[in-house]
Amino acid sequence: MTEYCISAIGHISSAYKQKFAIPRQPRLVPQAKAKLIFEKEFNREEFVRGLDDFSHIWLIFRFHGTADKGYSPMVRPPRLGGNERKGVFATRATFRPNAIGMSAVQLDAIEYKNGQLSLLLSGIDLLDGTPILDIKPYLPYSDALPQASAGFADCEPQTDMHVEFEPSVLNFIAQQIEYPELTQFITNVLKQDPRPAYKKQKNAQQSYGMTLYDFNIRWQVVGDTNLVTQIEKS
User: Fold this and answer.
1) Can you list the alpha helix ranges (DSSP code H) found in 121-221?
2) What does DSSP say about strands 100-113 and 10-14: parallel, antiparallel, or unpaired?
3) What's the rounded Cα separation, in Å, for the pair 188 and 30?
4) Which CATH superfamily is domain 162-233 in?
5) CATH architecture type of domain 10-143
6) C-beta separation of 125 from 103 below 8 A
7) Contact 24, 78 (CB under 8 A)
8) Which one of 52, 175, 193, 222 is least enclosed by Cβ atoms within 10 Å?
């Protein structure tokens, strides 16, 4: 088998500090902000000259959180409830032979501050620390194919979960000023119902936790409602 040497051009600084609760596709949570920080070799403005003409970009990245677990020829897509197997190349599963992924995300700005080149992004679905292998501009005339068929993922994911907050949680959020969209961010993450597929089959009350930015967040699932019960600095 031919081998290739690929080096990361940068890495992602993301609100998602753990794999659990990351949206399964980009742009499902517009409030999900991130920064692409370029490595030393690529830390020059020449590399991105003209990129600010584009509203969206493709990120080619490595699934560094699961790459060491190898790959499987068959996987269970969450869209099918985890009950049906598909070939890995018929899915966007993380357990791939080369652990490579791609995301189309919004480019908010190009920042060059204190000698560091970065891209400010929105709608990301990437774990903090994700290595970026390449960047390409998104071209609507060729990349957007409205009439294309999408097999078992032909429709948008359902977001029927209701999200509510305990008063103490809302009070905590109101007192912090660093993340003005934090309530909506948490809401849109939980609307995606990040639970494993097999957990959605159960009717009993369930409790979960996730880390966004530097906050530990706890919530309970009761029926079709996610109730955020606790938030604290990690």
Assistant:
1) 140-143, 167-175, 182-191
2) unpaired
3) 8
4) RelE-like (3.30.2310.20)
5) Beta Barrel (2.40)
6) yes
7) yes
8) 175
The model's pTM = 0.88
Quote the CA–CA distance of 186 and 199 in Å, as a whole number: 20
Contacts of 91 (CB under 8 A, 6+ apart): 75, 77
Q: 16: closest CA among 184, 180, 232, 189?
A: 189
Phi first, then psi, for residue 120 (nearest 5°) are: -95, 125
